[in-house]
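Many introductory courses stop at the sequence. We go one step further.
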Amino acid sequence: MRTTLIAAALLLPSLAMAAPDKTVTFAPAKALTRAPAHHYASPLAINIDSRTDGAWSVAGDQAQWTYSLKVNNALSLGFHAPQAMLPEGTVLTVNGIQHGENDISRTGMWSLPVEGDVLELVAVMPLNVSKQFLLNIKQVQAGFRSMQPLVVPKAQQVLKAVPGKAVLPQHDFSKPIPKHQNPDCLKNQPFIERQSRAVAVLNVMNVGGCSATIMNNSNQDETPYLLTATHCGISEGRGDISIGEYPSEAAHQGLADSAASTRAHFYDVQKCNATTGSVVGSGAMDTNTYILGAQHRAALSDTWLIELDRHISAKMHPYFSGLDAPVVVVNETHPESDNGLFSIGHSYGGQQRYAPYLSCRSEFDSISVRCFLGEDFLDAVAAGASGSGLFDHSNRVSGTINGGGDGKEDFILLSNFWTWNRGNANENISAWLFPDSPIGQAPKRLDGYDPYGAFAVATPKPTAAPTATPKPTAVPTARPTATPVPAPQNGGDSGGGSMGLGLLALGLLALRRKALN
């Protein structure tokens, strides 16, 4: 027995075998008064290092590291660990939710945020690799506002995790949305069904929730481009941006850092429920299907294009939206007509909502348009919908939501990329969506692409699975080269500080109205 303990001590990292848990205090009311509407958490600097903190124990040939953090008054908690090494055989759980390589991007590990004010970290690994394990947390994100389903509720957490058993988050929403706003209840309208599969919800740096649109490109090769709002990726002190402005070098750097920490969740719904539940196919997005990490591609004014680090799973049946970049967008028709304009976004970070517009008019010398909602849809667009697209019935996007309220929403037009004609690839989306066209000569219209089609409708009796349509073979093309942006510093605190404060102030100043998200 004595020999076994000595051997275990030599194999374990050099630290005290027990350390007290840490408790810090957070002031959510103060954070709430300073934050943009799409933020649900604030970053707090901290230093938790598995080499010096926590408690180790040994059972047979297995080593276990545990650590508990309490943040008083926090509604939810997440963390960023710039250094994270999980040797083979390691099972790391956060409040019972297994984390692994899918939660590590170029800037380190970003945990799934969990409801509550306690983080319970447990890592179980073979004893002979325990010296290789490393988790160095430099920041926790303390929640001050509910933003489901970005945060895993307590009911779905298992604080005493079973080593080796993955407990993945599911969500239960008890508050339904009206059926006329629920895209899952409108699947008989193909343009709504298609667009629903093209809309994702973004969790940026574990502090902000926005919406995004999956975009097609002229090669139709399923490159995972997402279109959203620039302010979703701008953090305080990292280069502010206002309407009608070019991003600064600092802004490009901030966007590059934010992209690396962005987690995109995708929608997988097959039927309409009166109360939208959590199971895939019953009214909410599939939180278990997500991609962490992206590359900053292009930004101009308040429009941002990113490329995910991994392709979107075919099981999500993604639809790749088309593009329309007219200089002026005017919609004076009934929203149900063929040329009616609409949006679909994840308001409050929750289930998608459909919002048709009665009319739109040009604003700010055609930099943006303002669109007006009917009485039954006044609450369909809210915090979390920033970055949602302005779509037509042909599923082409012409702008992204920048702000709004009181039944009217502002969209920054994609035509700015053509009329301003910036030569740098990181300031022109046409360089990415039309890779074979010189910047300034790219078409202004692109059709959508539906390689997988709609989800099969569930039936009471088993039926034969439909034959998948063969996917076209992608034609390799040269990728555009973006203006060099300094690489993020790995090992430091990525994007510390509250996000979007400068943008919020400038956006309010420019539009004189409340920013949505």
